[in-house]
Amino acid sequence: MNDLRIALRRLRRAPAFAATAVLILAIGIGMATAMFTTYHAVVLRKLPLRDPDRIVVLWTFRDPTVELPVRVTEVDDLRRQSRTLSNIAGFVHWGALVSSRLLTGLLFQVSPTDPMTLAGVCVLLLGVGVGAAYLPARRAMLIDPAQALRAE
To answer: pLDDT category, 100, cuts 50, 70, 90?
Structure first.
């Protein structure tokens, strides 16, 4: 209880810090709520269909190691020619389409969906993240705790 009084007294002395802390907490809680609501609506809730177990996903394979979505023209051809599927729908993720076209121009003889390139980029980003967290922590470990407490 004494710790709570000390914390409230310090927050009263620094209202800008208190307001910033409350604002950051509110934004974090709001973002977490929004993310869970979206996840619940997209992933957890059942599809509003009569027979959801009859839905299929179609992929094309240019390279056996990489799955690529079906093109819009292929969806139209399937809709016209299919005798087994009662209805066909498709969607295009334009952000991925545009970024893959951009990457094709930037990379020399490397496909934007190349698994080795994607794995290399993941490893590189993981290394940068670990380095960004480890280096300041290592530097903080070199400080004498008693001296750090006296400085406050």
So the answer is: low
